[in-house]
Amino acid sequence: MKEKSLLSEARQIQLATELVKLGARLQVLEANTKLSRERLVRLYKEIKGVSPPKGMLPYSEDWFTSWQPNVHSSLFINIYNYMVKYAHVQGIDAIIRSYKLYLEHIEINQLPRVLSLTRAWTLVRFLESKVLSVATCVECNGNFIVHSLEIHSHHVCGLCHVPSRAGKTKKVEAVETVDMGHGDHEHAA
Ligand SMILES: [Zn+2]
Fold this sequence. Notes:
By secondary structure, this protein is mostly helical. The chain has helices spanning 6-21, 26-32, 37-48, 67-86, 91-108, 117-128, 171-176; strands at residues 132-136, 143-147. Bound molecules: zinc ion (ZN). Residues 137, 139-140, 142, 157, 159-160 line the site of zinc ion. Zn(2+) binds at residues 137, 140, 157, 160.
């Protein structure tokens, strides 16, 4: 790290700490701070008490268009777009602030935490690379995440047209969002 400023380093650690507390995976920390991987791993262990999960992020864009994830992802991206437009924040700061508002919203409404911070970050990247887009539902006028390649001039969202299989929440996803489940506990400090 070339940056010698203590203040700059303190800010980096503060940012990384906040991201870890919100459930971010190591890849998110590496992409958004200038701290070395080694230091990030140490920081992660100090905060969580376990090593960060190993391996690549398994996230594909299809997850964001399945029913329940789509409702949560769309909620998040509406908050995010609002923040970018009116609160004049961007990048990881916009993601953190929007994610906190998303958490507040689901806590108030007693909904499960379907969207992890890592997924929220991945979602923004999919939108920036135009793999995913936002389409307006013709029935409720809400904005929802869709595949960019799909024709959505007549998009009807998952809330206006609830599929019959919607009630069956996949257990795998519920475990995934806990974020601690795949940790390498053997090497925990
Ligand atoms: Zn709708």
